[in-house]
Amino acid sequence: MVTFHRLDDTHTRLMIQIDWEPEGLVEKAGAVVGVDDHRVKADAKRFKAFIEGRGSATGAWRGDVSAG
């Protein structure tokens, strides 16, 4: 689940929640040392850089999607 929380006119907090079970030796070892957590954080930083690099809003739809 990914949620965006408006903090003020120029700041938004992005919350990411992932529920998964590692399968196999490689995934389990990666989870133990935090590779999965690091990957999610790195992807979020790349997303932030992408959004901030646009310089302006896209004009796309804005609204809420209800959890139904």
Structure description:
- The radius of gyration is 16 Å and the shape is elongated.
- 0% of the residues are buried.
- Strand 1 and strand 2 (11-16) form a beta hairpin.
- Strands 1-2 form a two-stranded antiparallel sheet.
- By secondary structure, the chain is of the alpha+beta class.
- The two termini are 13 Å apart.
- The chain has helices spanning 24-33, 35-54, and strands spanning 2-8, 11-16.
What does the secondary structure layout of this molecule look like, with pairings?
Elements: E1 2-8, E2 11-16, H1 24-33, H2 35-54
Antiparallel strand pairs: 1-2
Q: Give the overall average pLDDT.
A: 87
The main sheet orders its strands as 1-2
What best-fitting shape do the alpha-carbon axes yield? elongated
The secondary structure category is alpha+beta
- Percent of residues in helices comes to 40-55%
Distance from first to last alpha carbon: 13 Å
Care to count the β-strands? 2
% residues in beta strands = 15-25%
Tally the helices. Answer: 2
**Radius of gyration computed on alpha carbons:** 16 Å
Instruction: Tell me the major beta sheet.
Output: 2 strands, antiparallel
**Which consecutive residue ranges, at least 5 long each, have pLDDT under 50?**
none
SSE topology string: EEHH
Task: Please tag this protein with its features.
68 residues; alpha+beta; two-stranded antiparallel sheet; 2 helices
